[in-house]
Give the backbone structure.
Amino acid sequence: MPVSGLPPYDDQNIFARILRGEIPCRKVFEDEWALAFHDINPQAPIHVLVIPKGPYCSFADFSAAASAEEIAGFTRAVGKVARDLELESPGYRILANMGSHGGQEVPHFHVHLFGGRPLGRMVPTA
Ligand code: AMP
């Protein structure tokens, strides 16, 4: 059982299938640690997902179980993607949904990277 509160890692989840090349994606970046691709349903002019190569269900799982090398490699990949997309100067937002209250739909850890317009403050107050 992973530490994330989600079920064990499901290797048929859509991002696992993208990682294996079974489903196409609009790739932005790839290295040893991470793959980045455009979100299929963008919520901002730029909306890219960055996922680690390893089988982690969520941020909780990744932060507790990934090696220091994986965490460093992934974190650097997120920063590089933002830089390569020229988002550093105008700024951007990164977001990771975790579990049910977080609204996580795909059970492979991913960071959303949003940019291309002012993004407002934080989350809706509902
Ligand atoms: P989350 O709610 O954080 O789990 O977000 C999952 C994200 O994955 C959503 O923004 C979806 O639009 C996106 N998504 C789902 N399937 C695909 C796909 N095949 N290619 C790219 N993005 C996808």
Observations:
- The chain has a mean pLDDT of 94.
- Residues 14-115 form a domain with the HIT family, subunit A fold (CATH 3.30.428.10).
